[in-house]
Specification:
This protein is mainly alpha-helical. It folds into two domains: about 100 residues, no CATH class; about 160 residues, Butyryl-CoA Dehydrogenase, subunit A, domain 3 (Up-down Bundle). The protein has eleven helices and no strands. α2 runs antiparallel to α4, α7 runs parallel beside α10 and α9 crosses α10.
């Protein structure tokens, strides 16, 4: 056994220089990492493997046996066998890490979706189904459905939720408008046109959001950040510059999307103001023939007269 180890140490030490030369020419052939560099080749075949072979050789000297041919051949083939095994192990570990990360992201997305649905239910937000628009949907509601479908196609459900809020506000304002004015009145037509213009502006903003989000739909920001964070990976200068530019594109697009979403929030606030203003309008005639204070006073007098009538009956 010690002779085998001594021969293995000799064979392993002899293969360091050829593998180092191969790695300096093409690091991918000699280093099993994802993005190997020449510095890794020098460390592995100039320090790590020679140290390991020297340690095995010193260990084998205690037995006093000479090196065996089988150990020497095994040492010559050790790196060639170990490289694909280590490469496969690293790929398996990377896949396992990605699966865990994906499961974690899916769980977080499901939690956020549940929280969003709960907040939507608490806020009374009606959700639009682009595949099944409401039966009484007008042109504006159909445009909102198309806008939501476009945002869902680019995997932006957070922006699509804003479409539901616009649909809820629009329906609420139109309901109040119909309750306060007759459809034939000039005020009704003017108010409806203004509300529609505000919502159409939001539809245009949603279309712009979908177009800009579609431009970066194929870019994974989390992957780019992980790659840039791997300092030990030895990224090339060109790759690092490309990754930084890709991250800049994603961040610039997110800023534009947030700006458009903020503009839509202003439009939602305007619709809320319109709903409050419409709710304060009193256009119908009062149903009671007497004022409220006068009716309360008459009711008190009636109650007092009824008590006097009861006392006179007992006498």
């Amino acid at each position: 056994m010690l002779g085998f180890l001594q021969g293995f140490a000799y064979g392993l030490f002899l293969t360091c220089l050829p593998w180092a030369l191969v790695g300096l020419v093409n690091p991918r052939l000699a280093v099993p990492t994802e993005n190997p560099g020449r510095l890794q080749v020098v460390f592995r075949y100039g320090l790590l493997v020679p140290f390991l072979s020297m340690l095995l050789w010193l260990t084998s000297l205690w037995g006093g046996f000479g090196p065996s041919l089988g150990g020497w051949l095994a040492g010559l083939a050790a790196i060639g066998i170990a490289l694909p095994l280590e490469r496969g192990w690293r790929r398996w570990r990377t896949r396992r890490h990605q699966q865990r990360l994906k499961a974690k992201l899916d769980a977080e997305a499901q939690r956020q979706r549940a929280a969003h649905e709960r907040q939507a239910r608490e806020a009374g937000v009606a959700e639009l189904d682009p595949s099944r628009p409401p039966v009484d949907a007008d042109d504006l509601v159909l445009a909102l459905c198309r806008a939501k479908q476009g945002l869902l196609e680019v995997q932006r459900p957070d922006l699509a939720a804003q479409v539901d809020r616009f649909y809820t506000r629009y329906s609420h304002v139109m309901t109040l408008l119909g309750a306060r004015f007759d459809p034939g009145e000039l005020a009704y037509e003017r108010s409806r046109r203004l509300v529609t213009e505000v919502c159409l502006g939001a539809v245009d903003a949603f279309g712009s959001m979908a177009g800009q989000a579609r431009g970066v739909a194929g870019l994974d920001g989390d992957y780019v950040r992980r790659r840039l964070a791997q300092e030990e990976a030895g990224l090339a200068v060109e790759e690092r510059i490309a990754l930084k530019r890709r991250l800049e594109l994603i961040e610039e697009t997110d800023k534009r999307l947030r700006r458009l979403a903020a503009r839509n929030e202003s439009a939602l606030t305007l619709l809320d103001d319109a709903a409050v203003a419409l709710a304060r309008i009193e256009t119908g005639r009062p149903q009671a023939s007497l004022a409220t204070d006068q009716a309360l006073e008459e009711l008190r007098r009636f109650i007092g007269g009824a008590e006097r009538y009861s006392r006179s009956e007992r006498r």
